Amino acid sequence: MQRVPEIEAIAKDLEIEIIFSGIPVPEHQTIMILRAPSFEAVRTFTVKTHFVQINTITIRQTESVEEFFDETKDDAPLY
């Protein structure tokens, strides 16, 4: 809990919004949902917060269903 303000400040500097942060007990794992301007910003966040030193990091870049449908609306269906 002592590091929360530091982590939030790093996120703010990188223009990252922390949507969710949680720990599935009793695992030694942190799950975060972030809104960020880029993959690189999230990668930098994991380094500057030192999460890379204490966790295995998996970054999944996603988009909303609405964004996906908007992006693919003009594609011909496969079937």
Describe the structure.
The chain has 79 residues and is of the alpha+beta class. It has one domain. Helices cover 41% and strands 14% of the residues. It contains four helices and two strands; from the N terminus they run αββααα. It has helices spanning 4-13, 39-48, 51-54, 65-72, and strands at residues 17-22, 31-35. It has a two-stranded antiparallel ribbon with strand order 1-2.
Quickly count the helices: 4
Distance between the termini: 52 Å
Order of helices and strands: HEEHHH
Helix content, binned percent: 40-55%
The average pLDDT value, as a whole number, equals 91
Largest β-sheet summary = 2 strands, antiparallel
Radius of gyration: 16 Å
List keywords for this structure.
79 residues, alpha+beta, 4 helices
Summarize the helices and strands and which ones pair or pack.
Blueprint: H1 4-13, E1 17-22, E2 31-35, H2 39-48, H3 51-54, H4 65-72
Antiparallel strand pairs: 1-2
Q: Can you give me a brief rundown of this structure?
A:
Helix content is 41%, strand content 14%. It is of the alpha+beta class and 79 residues long. It has a two-stranded antiparallel sheet with strand order 1-2.
